[in-house]
Specification:
With 278 residues, the protein is of the alpha/beta class. The protein is built from 10 helices and 9 strands. The chain binds iron/sulfur cluster (2 copies) and FE2/S2 (inorganic) cluster.
Amino acid sequence: MSAKATLKVFRGDAEGGKFQSYEVETYPGMVVLDAVHEIQAKQEPTLAVRWNCKAGRCGSCSAEVNGKPRLMCMTRMSHFEEGQPVSVAPMRSFPVIKDLVTDVSFNFEMAKKIPPFSPRPREADGTHRMQQQDIDRIQEFRKCIECFLCQDVCHVIRDHKKSNFAGPRFLIHLATLDMHPLDTLDRRELAKDEFKIGLCNITKCCTEVCPESIHITDNGIIPLKERVVDDYFDPVKWLMRKVAGGPEKKKAKLPVISDEPLRGTFAATPLAKRGEGE
Ligand code: SF4
Ligand code: SF4
Ligand code: FES
């Protein structure tokens, strides 16, 4: 049997906006994205929403539903208490373009800064041999769908606007490369100095919102932090390296991509402009 639900959807742009209430007929299995599409189809054709797969694979329908970062296509309306309005807002760490659509280009700029995978040459028989346990360690990181919900919830990005902090999505990318058995580049100095891994204080909020259940902090950020600390702040390891010679991997350099400061245009829409108060 269908019932009615009230959605309070943010309407606005970079200049500001407010929440507007819409009533929709619900049905069994309906997800928040369906409800937003109902509003778009029958009440508000100009409502902007980004989506693609409706299957939790493309990572484009990220939003804040009742204040929590979620994929709209994977959030059932039945999850919420009947009769209570459900708020749907754009991700607050990124500037609003229109309604539920945000400008996530900060993430793509950050991705470009990470020196790419640089495998060692193949062996004489043309193969690349790896240990299964090395593959298992990084396999879960490859499930990332780049929804940027972890970036949205990270308080270092959200509150402090630390211009070079890479954020959890890119710290696990750095961890993946660091743990990769074939890779030949040492990106730990970049992780420390350019991507500011030290600013992460392991609150694990990123892990809590990841729709792919990736153990971002425990399996990615913490091991990378430990390796950086071992390399740069452990005097015994430092002495051993001096005695044994230089590092096995070549130090990675930041690729030159642009003279523009990374966050020159990156300013999340203030909460007051979103009708939520500071
Ligand atoms: S654990 Fe680190 S990266 Fe994740 S949300 Fe907290 S501060 Fe950000
Ligand atoms: S790590 Fe998880 S939350 Fe972060 S972008 Fe990837 S899938 Fe989304
Ligand atoms: S529409 Fe693709 S993840 Fe939601």
